[in-house]
Amino acid sequence: MSDEIIKLLEKLRLKGMLSALDKTLKTADSKGHPPLWAIKTLLRAEYRQQEERSMSNRLGQAKLPWDWTLDTFPYDRQPAVKKQNIQALASLEFMNRQQNIVLIGSPGTGKTGIAIGLLREAIVNGCRGRFYNAQNLIDELYASLADRTTTKLLNRLARYDLLVIDELSYLSLKLEQSNAFFKLLDQRYGRKSTIITSNLDYDDWYQLFQRKELVDAMLDRLQHHCITIRINGDTLRTPDS
Fold first, then answer.
1. CA distance 65 to 72
2. 105 — phi, psi (to 5°)?
3. Comparing C-alpha atoms, which of 177, 163, 144 is closest to residue 63?
4. Closest C-alpha among 109, 37, 122, 121 to residue 75
5. How many contiguous H segments (helices) and E segments (strands) does the chain have?
6. At what angle do helices 2-11 and 15-31 cross, to 10 degrees?
7. Which CA distances in Å does 3 have to 22, 34, 203, 207?
8. 196: which strand partners?
C-alpha cells in the first residue's frame, strides 16, 4: 500500500506530501495519531512546498538584478532616507490604494535599492511584479511595434501587481517609444502600482519626452495617486579602500 501511495503522489506531482510521507507515517504509527492527523500533516507539507515553489517562480519572473532587501539598505550612510518612512511603505498599503511611487535623486543615492526592496517585499507577500531598466523597457516596447505585438506586451505589463521602472533619465526616445510608454502608464493608472526611479525631477521630463501635451497627460495620471520621495544625499557608491 505504501508503494502504491508513493506512485500516486509522484503521478500527481505532490512533492511536498511525498517528501513528508515517510516521517509522517512513522510518527503517526509510533504516537498513535488518528488518520486525520496524518492527512492534515501531509496537506500542510504540500501547501508549504507549493507556496515556496510559487514564490521562487515569482522571484525568477521579476528579474531582480540584485538580491537586495529593505533590511540591507544602509540607512546609516544615507540620512536623507528615513527608515520609518520606508518601513511604512513596506506594509504595501500603497498597493492596496493603487498608489505610485517616484524616487528622485542623484545617481547612487539608493533609489534603485529601495525600489528593489519594495518589489521583493511585494513578491514575498504573494504579488506578481517585474523590474525593468527604463531603456530596456522602452526598447522592448519599440521592438513590439515591428512585429505588432505591442497590445499583447502592454496587456502583460499592465497585469503586474507592481512594476518597477528604473533609471528614467536622459534616454534616446523616438516618438513611437514615448507614445508606447504613455500607453503603459495609462493602462496601469488607477489599477496597479508603479515605482519609477529617476535622476530627473518632473520639470525635466518635458525635455526627455519632447512633447508637452504627452508629459502633461502622463504626469496627471502618474501623480494623481503618488508618493514622491526626493533623496538629496551623497552617493553610496564609494571607492573600495
1. 15
2. 175, 170
3. 163
4. 109
5. 11, 5
6. 150
7. 11, 21, 69, 69
8. 102, 165
Q: Residue 58: name the closest of 157, 158, 125 by CA.
A: 125
pTM of the full predicted structure?
Answer: 0.85
Per DSSP, helices labelled H in the chain are 2-11, 15-31, 35-62, 83-89, 93-96, 111-124, 134-146, 150-159, 175-188, 205-209, 212-222
Q: At what angle do helices 134-146 and 175-188 cross, to 10 degrees?
A: 110
| Residues facing 129 on adjacent strands | 162
Q: What angle do CA 150, 220, 98 make, to 5 degrees?
A: 75
pLDDT band per the 50, 70, 90 thresholds, residue 241: very low
**3 state SS of 70:** helix
Q: Chain centroid to CA 154: how far? A: 17
CB 192 within 8 A of CB 160: yes
Distance CA 105, CA 108 (A): 8
pLDDT at 239: 66
The answer to whether the beta carbons of residues 112 and 142 sit under 8 Å apart is no
CB 163 within 8 A of CB 157: yes
Q: Residue 124 pLDDT more than 60?
A: yes
Q: 95 with 224: CB under 8 angstroms?
A: no
